[in-house]
Design goal:
- This protein starts with a strand and ends in a 14-residue tail after the last strand.
- The strands form 2 sheets. Strands 1-2 form a two-stranded antiparallel sheet. A two-stranded antiparallel ribbon has the order 3-4.
- It is α+β, with helices and mostly antiparallel strands.
Amino acid sequence: MTQHSGITKPALQPEDITMLRAVLRQWCREKSCGVGSPAAQHVARELVSWFECGIRNPHKLAGLMRHMHVDGPTVSRPAAKAGQSERQDG
């Protein structure tokens, strides 16, 4: 288990990583981008975050990823509230 910001999270198991990798690869095929691209790296971080929050179904994860918008080399999520924008770092 890993300690992060006062929250204990279980370690990712090999089968978890295999599933997450497959979901990411499918997204990359749909978006015609490489797994090592900045967009894919951003989506991968979001994917792991959703997984750690308890979303473990690959179909649900893929659905969430489809709602992310690709803006050139970066990816942004729809703002949580109308009129709000999310700043992309890096």
